[in-house]
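Aim 2, interim progress. The first record below pairs a target sequence with its structure tokens.
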Amino acid sequence: MSSYSNVRRIYVGNLPSDIRTKDIEDIFYKYGKITLIDLMNRRGPPFAFVEFEDARDAEDAVSARDGYDYDGYKLRVEFPRGNSARPRGGPSRGRGPPARRSQYRVIVSGLPPTGSWQDLKDHMREAGDVCYADVYKDGTGVVEFLRYEDMKYAVKKLDDSRFRSHEGEVSYVRVREDTGRDSRSRSRSHSPRRSRSPVNYSHSPARKYSRSRSRSRSHS
């Protein structure tokens, strides 16, 4: 059985600069019911996340559309790497190789006192491939992604998200890109911290799409 058998969200990269949400729907509608198309094209090369109602449809879409030629662009279609089975990495504690580091970093604040770097890494892996995570005494943490796209997705989708520690303590965390202004030296610690007030949670509106639409589609 595929290690992605329960994953419904796929990553789509190497898109043309003038790509539209409708175009992405046209590419993937035939593989199953699409519940969300999240196109990110404001800065840098455009990319998108497409979520299906059924994980099997997501697998079919990856299998059929990875490498597909779209208007001269060879699409990159894959599952977000953070969903694959892999050892949990983090700050080195004397066992195994040191954690891989990346410049694609976010700052997370509002962590509960019992939140560990393992909890933080597991939470942020919803956005993609996390290569490093650590937490600090003041209830903040740092997370580094291997890919720029995953970092941007984390800021957009996991800001004001519900975080749960391994001891069951819940808070709502803020996630923002590390611009370098906060890169001060801090001593790492995993000791209990003071509790922090949870941040109010707000939902980002999600646009939903159904395959049951009657219109011509030029891309097969």
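The second target in this work package is listed in the same format:
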Amino acid sequence: MASLVATNETPKPVQSRPEFLTPQPVPRRDGTLTQPATSSGIIHTAMNFVEVLSEASASRAFSDKYRLILASLKSIHTGVRSTNSIPPVQLLNELAKMTSLLDGFNEVLVVELFKFKILSLQTDILAAYLHLLVELARSNTFHYDEICRLLLSTMASIEDEKPPEDQLDLVHKALQQMIQELPHFSDVLLKQISKCLPFMTKPWSQQVNMYRQVLRIVDYVPTQLSLDVLSRLVHKIIDLDCHCPKEEMLTMEETVDDTVATQFTMDSAENDSTIKEQGPTKHSSKIGSDSQPSAISICNREMKHSLGNALDRLMELLFEYIDSHVTGSLDEAKATYRRFLAVFDKYIMATYKCLHVQFLMFYICSKRPLFMDHLIDFLWHKVQDPNTPVVFRQISVAYLGSLLSRAAFVSVGTLKDTLTLLSRFLHSYIAQSSSAQLLGVDVNRHATFYAVCQSLLYCVAFRHKDIAESTNGLEFLRSLNLEQLITSPLNPLKIMSKSIATNFANVSRHYQVVYCHAIIERNQRSALPMAHVAYGPHNAQTASGQTSQCSTIIEGYFPFDPYVLIRSRRWIEPIYRHYVDYLSSAGDLDDDEDEDVEEMDDETSGGGGEDGSSRSRVMKIDRQTSITSASPHDASVAMSIVSANSSLSGQGVEKLFAYSVSPGFIH
């Protein structure tokens, strides 16, 4: 039999459950009480959160209740919940009532709050959490940066093509409430947007989702803030556009037959920036045609160029945004146009050789004629404003000429009216310069004149058929008095892009408006370096006592050259005008040139039937005779002409008479 051994130890009393953990009955509406909750669903109505937080802040120590609150917060974002955890919705609602206590020692709770993964929360928990963030922002401006960073980083973390729209709607509702109620919250939001926009090398899906959410912010923020936010977005896309060279993207594409080139069918914008002539590029035989693609069957495939593919997706997103805002009410369309026009003026026009972003304005103008007329007027005022820097006047007229030529929605009447303004400006410029005795080939002095003249001739060469077929079209071309511009001492054909000058010469000869080939050939001969001494404020003598004739060629840059992005091209193709060679083929032009040469030979030989060699001998003898009979000074000049002609005789006919080829095939 086991014996009982008495001990001196007193039995420990059974510990009672803390009062705040004891389930309490909840009264119903009819006055009856509900049954106490089980351990898995405890409702902590007896806990005084204000007392717990105040005591912790005063004693600088964690009590059991405080540890329970902290553990319950951690369980929300970790997903590991204990049976004693406070229900998430109740906890967040209680903390929202005492946000003024969430500072100092209690900031440990705020740190846990900012660790939440918003898109992983259930809808009811997310609503309570966002309400807590709004109350936290109201109580202390110190939390603005962290709240903005948390919400924007949530948008930037979306990589799925179909984001959770219900949860994002709650996030935007909370952001909108804070923007409306908190004065300085907008400034912090704008700064955080610039920081949280994904880098260009991030996956395109992440970039598109982030930009889509930021465009939603543009719609509900104040006017000035919406402009600033849109500027941040477009500026990032411009950076991406500048990292996507056109040749590099076309080289990486397999279907180069569907691509298009620039200007009249040649990529001469880059070639004209240098003085030397370059041959056709590697893909000139395929991408060197400005003909309209037969079908856009590849519009849904990905581009091989990773950055180009991201740019393509972002441009498609912006086109969708513009389409949804411009096709609605007129007031909304005007507000959207004004925002994009301000961004266009501040960022897009100031970017050198931007390739695709400017087509946003191109597309907006196609939606309403009012926008097209306003943009033309906006650009023209910049061109003729003497207070505008010269470089921006040149860029403005380049945009103007490219818009008039490439936009299918620009009528012939608008084209003719604008060309009239350009020609009047040029004639007035020549008259003022001649009165001041400032005429002469000088790019630095007359840069605006040359840019305006190049755009004028570009438009005439590009849309000559539309002008000629309009009412009194040929009379209109003659009324522009282009001959006075071409033959002026400023000699614009010598300074402008060679391809544009050549195409205009072919068009003007076809309509017998002005004959430019002789001037072009003379300019080619005068391109040889000449040593002379000149004095004056604008012809300063060099260190060696010599100056050279200004032979710089202004760049043939026209911003609305063909669009090469694949997916977003479908928004541009229906409203875009591709270059079509309406003139005769190259062979016909060569035949015309041969006929002109034969007529000149007949006149020289007196209409006789001598062959080509005999005629050349007669011309050579006459030239030598004139040399021997002339004065010594004239003889030296004539001898230099003979030597120059003999040096040119070794060149090929195609190079010597490069201006005689058909428009659209200039290399």
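The chain is about 55% helix and 0% strand. This observation will shape the mutagenesis plan for the next reporting period.
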